[in-house]
Amino acid sequence: MTDASLHANPQGPASTRRDFLFVATGAFAAVGTAAAIWPLISQMSPDAQTIAAGAAFDVDISAVAPGQQISVLWRGHPVFIVNRPAAALATLKEAALIANLRDPDSSVLQQPPYARNWHRSIDPQWLVLVGVCTHLGCIPIFEPNKDQQGPGWPGGYFCPCHGSKYDLAGRVYQNVPAPYNLPVPPYRIVNAKTLRVGENPPGETFSIDEVTQL
């Protein structure tokens, strides 16, 4: 689920461990959730050279059902795209959830200015996140259904490496290892059927390299 290689890492043991965890978690997630996480990826992903270069590319979102997540690769990282139904959006404003979040107002620079809002997106319906846990770079698992992580779970993301949790806007919970919200990449909605990853809306200049942690 990631194009990270397993060759010797010149940056040392810490970097090697991070790469291993990223790959291992991807394999773990694939066993039980591949159908939910990666549908349509072969049709929507650009070629390897385009991915490596970080060029913008279009994703057809016309067939993404409410409540469904698809993923594409951009700059070597998974990018999650979720069609959030109204019920899921309603949970993001609940006081009980907000009280359990570390950065509910997205104060830390983990998103473009146009995604610093309660839904962390341009259009509330469409969530776009870099699917890399801000703890050690593992790939969080999409668990959108109520109570999947126990009573009171409103839906969101769970990282199986060390138990970090995020809501359906990618906002991190308190008292978990991950320090920051999931990053939001530059993107724009071209039309009702097309979302472009890697390109800002007109007049915006955000770069993913600006985030506090990827």
Description of the structure:
With 214 residues, the chain is of the alpha+beta class. The protein has five helices and nine strands; from the N terminus they run αααβββααββββββ.
Please render the helix and strand layout as text.
Elements: H1 13-37, H2 41-44, H3 48-53, E1 57-60, E2 69-74, E3 77-83, H4 86-91, H5 95-98, E4 126-130, E5 141-143, E6 156-158, E7 165-167, E8 187-191, E9 194-197
Antiparallel strand pairs: 1-9, 2-3, 3-4, 5-6, 6-7, 8-9
Q: How many β-strand stretches?
A: 9
Distance between the termini: 17 Å
The first-level CATH class is given as Mainly Beta
Beta-strand content bin: 15-25%
Write the CATH fold name.
Rieske Iron-sulfur Protein
Quick recap of the structure?
This protein is α+β, with helices and mostly antiparallel strands.
Features:
single chain, 214 residues, alpha+beta, three-stranded antiparallel sheet, 5 helices, 21% helix
